Every structure is written in structure tokens, then in C-alpha cells.
Amino acid sequence: MADRKTSSVEYFALGFVAGMAVGAAVALLTAPKSGRLLRRDLKRGLEDASETVKGKVEERVTKIQDSLRDVEQALKDAAQKITPR
User: Fold this and answer.
1) CB 14 within 8 A of CB 56
2) pLDDT averaged per 10 residues in sequence order, the chain, 85 residues
3) In terms of Cα–Cα distance, which of 64, 48, 80 is closest to 10?
């Protein structure tokens, strides 16, 4: 149950960040700026979004790796309990 709640919070946060990125892009595209300034702002926005996504992916990978280690250890422990000596 805790995993489901955590997952929902993460999906909400990801959706929130994506919505902010879309809103920022629309604002930049409708703002009266020169092409050079617009491209610079878009580049910065994409770099920031890329870093955010990269950080979230790294967090998820770490959680998955931790979970796999826990499962591996649980399987080893279970195997030791049922292995005849």
C-alpha cells in the first residue's frame, strides 16, 4: 500500500513538472522576444527539465536496485532455511 501511495505522489510530481514545462514553453513562445533570446530561454528551460528528469530517473533506478538487493537477500535467506544440512 505504501508503494502505491508513493507511486501516486511521484506521478503527481512528474505531472506537475511536465505541466510547468509546457506552461513555460507556451509563455516563451507567446512572449514578444527576439528569436535569439527565445532560443536561449528555450535551451535553458530544456536543460533544466532534462536535469530534473535525469534526477528522477536516477532516484528510481536507485530504488529499484535497492529493492532487487533486498529480494536477492530474502531469497538467499529462504534458500538457507530450506537447504538440508
Assistant:
1) yes
2) 61 81 79 80 85 88 92 91 76
3) 64
Q: Which helix (H) or strand (E) holds 56?
A: helix 35-82
Question: What is the pTM assigned to this prediction?
Answer: 0.52
- Angstrom distance (rounded) from CA 29 to CA 39: 10
3-state secondary structure 2-44: HHHHHHHHHHHHHHHHHHHHHHHHHHHHHCCCCHHHHHHHHHH
Alpha carbon separation from 42 to 6, 25, 33, 79 (Å, rounded):
31, 7, 12, 55
- If one counts the domains in the chain, the total is 1
Range of the domain at 65: 2-82
